Amino acid sequence: RVGFDLLGQAMSGGMHISGLDGEPRRTQIPYVDYGTALYAAFGTMAALMERDRTGQGQMVEASLFSTSLSFTNGLLVEQALLDNNRQGVGNRGYAHAPNDVFQTENGWIVTMVVGRPIFERWAGLMEEPHWLEDERFETDISRGDHAHLISERMARWCAERTTEAALAQLEAARIPAGPVYQPRQVLADPHVIARNLMQSFPYPGVETSVPLVDTPVRFSGIKAGIRHRAPTLGEHTREVLAELGYDEAEIAELREARIV
Questions:
Q1: Is the pTM of this model over 0.90?
Q2: pLDDT of res. 185
């Protein structure tokens, strides 16, 4: 069947659980597309290892739907075991709390409290120590079931502070939190710049250099990273076919037949 990222998001259950007020919500980041490419690369590397070991080649197959199901597998396991038919919760997490997006005086932040020790520190910061004795907030799951109460308390705390002040206090208490960046803020983030997480490359038709995220995986003994920009459509077709043993006449014939 013809497929796109959005179909995977929809058919995996991901859009449903991310929805709000009964309306499913997509993510604008095509994670199913990207995830399928990663799985295909993983499968190709595994096939190459098998070829080196046995001499046998493999047909490697990846699909958008399989990828999307693998990403929502935890939700599907819960449904199969508990038959709980979860409804969309928007930005709020459903398995622990506070796990939500909160507005500050000058922006937005997120925080994600998982496990009793972090929740204890959070309750102390909120000056709500009695919540530690409340059975509604005893476990991650029970806190998730009553997340609207916890999010409401956190929202009031954040509304009285700037993003910078809120994050400083949360960090001092060792509570996971971070700012909600706009794309322009990502490009200017000091951590991104200091670690050289992005590299600039010239690109055809663009007057300025294009910022590309460097290889996300780093190695201790291998020099890895982006060496050049991605090619335009068909830019290296002739070179690739030549490496595979096609001569100029054969390549011309393939082009004439609109095969390449």
A1: no
A2: 96
